Amino acid sequence: MLPTLHTTRLTLSPFTPADAPLVQRYAGDARVASMAAFIPHPYPDGLAEQWIASHLPDHLARTSTTLAIRERDTGELRGAIGLILTLEKRLGEVGYWVGAPFWNQGICTEAARRIIQYGFDDLALETIRAHHFPHNPASGHVMKKAGMTRIGVIPRCTPKDGQLLDAIQWQILKTDFDTQGE
Ligand SMILES: CC(C)(COP(=O)(O)OP(=O)(O)OC[C@H]1O[C@@H](n2cnc3c(N)ncnc32)[C@H](O)[C@@H]1OP(=O)(O)O)[C@@H](O)C(=O)NCCC(=O)NCCS
């Protein structure tokens, strides 16, 4: 079973097939797709349904855990957040998007803090990393606000739309996370 997690304002819960039209609209928006390594633009019909159907098998295989970001009060979809897992290294890679109408309201930072806590407390990870493209400083700002440390740039590392783009890498260790709350 995929988990359901709560924060003050948000619920992180499994996607359902009913979310597919909004996933296509929000993730397929060029402002979102251009910042994310694996989101195509235009976003083809049927891809959102396929993506949602992959979440439970991937979670059961312990290769990734992906959750919807929803308003806690209304259940309305705001975005997606997940961890790609390399359990033999006790390593997770966090990734996310938020629908453009809801940007700059602190949603992603709140969701990122919660999934990092889930990764350390429930999945026993030791390290959680994230990376963003140089043209996406907002995502770096989220990583910083979520307690991560910038560890460097891997040049020409991530394919996007036929180009290889630099990846700016961030990470947080469990030991650092444990002491941040003190
Ligand atoms: C990155 C993204 C998830 C952030 O979501 P969000 O809910 O708006 O994030 P938050 O509101 O928690 O934080 C955004 C922060 O970035 C800041 N920010 C916005 N645009 C910025 C810019 N151009 N440069 C620097 N900081 C910027 C905001 O001011 C805010 O910081 P603040 O709270 O200190 O004011 C969202 O912009 C998004 O979905 N982008 C497209 C997809 C994407 O980038 N995914 C991640 C791939 S690595």
From TrEMBL:
Gene3D superfamilies: 3.40.630.30. Keywords: Acyltransferase, Transferase. Residues 10-175 form the N-acetyltransferase domain. InterPro entries: Acyl_CoA_acyltransferase, GNAT_dom, N-acetyltransferase. GO terms for molecular function: acyltransferase activity, transferring groups other than amino-acyl groups. SUPFAM superfamilies: Acyl-CoA N-acyltransferases (Nat). The keyword Transferase applies. The keyword NAD does not apply. PROSITE patterns: GNAT (PS51186). Pfam families: Acetyltransf_3. PANTHER family: [RIBOSOMAL PROTEIN US5]-ALANINE N-ACETYLTRANSFERASE, GNAT FAMILY, PUTATIVE (AFU_ORTHOLOGUE AFUA_3G00765)-RELATED-RELATED. Belongs to the acetyltransferase family. RimJ subfamily. This is N-acetyltransferase domain-containing protein. It comes from Ereboglobus luteus.
